[in-house]
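Box 3.1 A note on notation
Throughout this textbook, protein chains are presented in two layers. The first layer is the amino acid sequence; the second is a C-alpha coordinate string describing backbone geometry. Keep the layers aligned when reading.
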Amino acid sequence: MWLQRRFGVGGPVIFFRVSLCDNNLTAMFNNNFAMMQHHKYSLTDIENMIPWERDIYTALLVQWVAEENDRIKKQNQG
Protein backbone atom coordinates (compact mmCIF):
# COMPACT_ATOMS: atom_id res chain seq x y z
CA MET A 1 0.00 0.00 0.00
CA TRP A 2 2.86 2.36 0.83
CA LEU A 3 4.49 1.66 -2.56
CA GLN A 4 1.27 2.41 -4.36
CA ARG A 5 0.96 5.86 -2.81
CA ARG A 6 4.61 6.81 -3.04
CA PHE A 7 5.67 5.35 -6.38
CA GLY A 8 2.37 4.92 -8.20
CA VAL A 9 3.00 1.18 -8.49
CA GLY A 10 0.15 -1.32 -8.24
CA GLY A 11 1.60 -2.77 -5.07
CA PRO A 12 0.73 -6.29 -3.97
CA VAL A 13 -2.00 -6.71 -6.58
CA ILE A 14 0.41 -6.19 -9.48
CA PHE A 15 3.07 -8.31 -7.77
CA PHE A 16 0.75 -11.29 -7.38
CA ARG A 17 -0.69 -10.97 -10.87
CA VAL A 18 2.79 -11.05 -12.37
CA SER A 19 4.18 -13.75 -10.08
CA LEU A 20 1.21 -16.11 -10.51
CA CYS A 21 1.18 -15.84 -14.28
CA ASP A 22 2.78 -18.95 -15.76
CA ASN A 23 2.04 -18.26 -19.42
CA ASN A 24 4.51 -16.63 -21.73
CA LEU A 25 3.63 -13.40 -23.47
CA THR A 26 2.80 -14.97 -26.84
CA ALA A 27 0.38 -17.43 -25.27
CA MET A 28 -1.28 -14.64 -23.31
CA PHE A 29 -1.91 -12.59 -26.45
CA ASN A 30 -3.14 -15.65 -28.36
CA ASN A 31 -5.57 -16.50 -25.56
CA ASN A 32 -6.77 -12.90 -25.31
CA PHE A 33 -7.36 -12.76 -29.06
CA ALA A 34 -9.23 -16.07 -29.13
CA MET A 35 -11.41 -15.13 -26.17
CA MET A 36 -12.26 -11.76 -27.71
CA GLN A 37 -12.86 -12.91 -31.30
CA HIS A 38 -14.48 -16.28 -30.82
CA HIS A 39 -16.17 -16.01 -27.43
CA LYS A 40 -17.00 -12.28 -27.28
CA TYR A 41 -15.12 -11.43 -24.06
CA SER A 42 -14.03 -7.80 -23.81
CA LEU A 43 -10.37 -7.01 -23.23
CA THR A 44 -11.32 -5.19 -20.04
CA ASP A 45 -13.08 -8.28 -18.71
CA ILE A 46 -10.08 -10.45 -19.52
CA GLU A 47 -7.54 -8.08 -17.99
CA ASN A 48 -9.58 -7.69 -14.80
CA MET A 49 -9.59 -11.44 -14.16
CA ILE A 50 -7.41 -12.90 -11.44
CA PRO A 51 -4.87 -15.32 -12.97
CA TRP A 52 -6.51 -18.45 -11.51
CA GLU A 53 -9.94 -17.18 -12.57
CA ARG A 54 -8.65 -16.75 -16.12
CA ASP A 55 -7.24 -20.30 -16.04
CA ILE A 56 -10.63 -21.66 -14.98
CA TYR A 57 -12.50 -19.83 -17.74
CA THR A 58 -9.93 -20.95 -20.30
CA ALA A 59 -10.25 -24.57 -19.17
CA LEU A 60 -14.05 -24.35 -19.35
CA LEU A 61 -13.87 -22.90 -22.85
CA VAL A 62 -11.50 -25.67 -23.99
CA GLN A 63 -13.89 -28.26 -22.56
CA TRP A 64 -16.89 -26.63 -24.25
CA VAL A 65 -15.12 -26.47 -27.63
CA ALA A 66 -14.17 -30.16 -27.37
CA GLU A 67 -17.77 -31.11 -26.54
CA GLU A 68 -19.11 -29.02 -29.43
CA ASN A 69 -16.62 -30.61 -31.83
CA ASP A 70 -17.71 -34.08 -30.68
CA ARG A 71 -21.38 -33.15 -31.05
CA ILE A 72 -20.84 -31.83 -34.57
CA LYS A 73 -18.79 -34.89 -35.52
CA LYS A 74 -21.57 -37.24 -34.30
CA GLN A 75 -24.21 -35.15 -36.05
CA ASN A 76 -22.33 -35.34 -39.37
CA GLN A 77 -21.80 -39.11 -39.06
CA GLY A 78 -25.38 -40.01 -38.27
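Helices lie at 2-7, 11-20, 25-39, 43-47, 51-77. The mean pLDDT is 80.
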